[in-house]
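URGENT: need a sanity check before tomorrow's submission.

F., can you look over the Sugar transporter SWEET record below? I want to be sure the sequence and structure line up before it goes out.
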Amino acid sequence: MDTKDLLSITGSLTTILQFLAGIPICRDIWRKGSTDGISGLPFLAGVLGCSLWFRYSLILQDQTMCLVNLIGLILQVCYVLIYLLYPSTQKATFHRQLGTILAILFGVIYYCSIEPKVDIAKFRLGVICCLTTLFFCASPLASLRDVIRMKNTAPLPFPLILLTALVTGQWYLYGVCIGDSVVQLPNLIGCMIATFQLSLFLVYPRTPAVKPHGDCIDPVVLECRKKIKPSDSAYQRTLLKKFQA
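Structure tokens as predicted:
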């Protein structure tokens, strides 16, 4: 078994495992009986990403990428259907997002079907796949501000980040084996972003530090403490105690 075959097997398994991350979310929706407080955008993003990469893999005629993205697309569509079945106060927003994703998807697929030059279609679709993947890989950096402000990594999902680093790293190496820069570039950057996030766990603790007597020492709370003066009203002090709780 050569390196390419090994990466195709391990990369496929870890990627499918990553796709299964939507099952706990659907379980929470089932338990709550609604989708309130749960965003359906990650499912829509999964449908878009898997569809685009599946179409690209068809042009590339890569069976491994075809199989993985087809499995991912089926799972993501199932997640979207489950999300649609349950009531939500944000249903109108989700419908608009769904319409936008479908319009983009059908537009890209239609273009690929009418483009007479396969190389041009492959290049342009590859650029779209790269930009889409880079956007989704960079989205977790939105929580970076909270991590630095609170000086703890509680907002970061360690298992998912670790799995992302493994998946993107393996697909980058697979892209090197098949000599495709479209596969290499977004996975390399995604792996770097995930590795950077993992490094934060070495700098900051996983949970906020707490004093023995139970007082929270979150930087925001400390800042509030500094602003409370002896002359402040009892109402202000009550608000601070509630914030600390």
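My own read: The CA atoms of residues 182 and 242 lie 51 Å apart. The radius of gyration is 22 Å. If you see anything odd, call me.
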